[in-house]
Amino acid sequence: MRELLADALEVFDRHSGWIIWNLFLAFIPLVLSFWLFRRRSISRTWFWWIIYVIFIAFLPNAPYLLTDIIHLIRATRAGYSVWIITLIFIPLHLFAILSGLEAYVVSLINQNHYLRKEGAKQYIFLSEIMTHLLCAIGVFMGRFRRFNSWDLVTQPDVVLSKTLDDLTTKKPLLVIFITFIAITISYTLMKQVTFGLMLQFRRLYLGLDELDPEEIIKR
Question: CB of 144 within 8 A of CB of 134?
């Protein structure tokens, strides 16, 4: 048992130490989305726009956790006990990845709620696509160029030049496109799961039946 626990700690330190930090970064835009889009009275002041820019800058951290599947692959090939991999490592990583994706989904649901509230329902799909694209670029810059969200402030010139270089090069463009497709598909699937869970909750605990997704968002 002592050896098993020692292996578990080694696995976490070597392959899972990123989880707490990455989840923290992923939940920053989630928290900001409630302040930006879910308050009863929202005025788009200069302060609101500053928070919105911060929201956009940190939002790629949520779908970024999808790429952390590489840590799962590396650990399964590292020769650890099957019990460690099955009972600790896989559940832990899946939890982190799904939590990051759910934070992304709820953030965009809140944004969609705001657009609907402002009478801009027709722009919801376009805003989702543009957000997926921006996040795909952000994920690529974070995973392969190792930039952080705050680098937009600390070294904006470097981030801009590197981004422009990658957007005009075939291989980075291909990776960004694949990432965009992965984010779009994952978001679409998880969004339906989220709506289903919300609907089930309202039926069981609030006694509300036959609500469509738009009504779920409004309430």
Answer: no
Handedness of CA 120, 124, 129, 131 (dihedral sign): positive
Token reading at 138: 């952000």
Average pLDDT over residues 3-15: 60
Q: Which of 16-25, 121-130, 203-212 has the highest mean pLDDT?
A: 121-130
Output the CA–CA distances (angstroms, integers) from residue 194 to 25, 104, 109, 201, in the order listed: 21, 11, 10, 11
CA angle 216, 217, 219 (to 5 degrees): 70
Q: What is the pTM of this model?
A: 0.84
| Amino acid making up residue 119 | G
Q: How far apart are CA 55 and CA 52, in angstroms?
A: 5
Residue 192: the pLDDT is 93
Cα-based angle 2, 4, 10 (whole degrees, multiple of 5):
105
CA distance 109 to 30: 10
Q: How many domains is the chain built from?
A: 1
Inter-helix orientation angle 90-117/124-143, to 10°: 140
* pLDDT over threshold 90, residue 136: yes
Domain range holding 153? 2-218
Alpha carbon distance 139, 143 (integer Å): 6
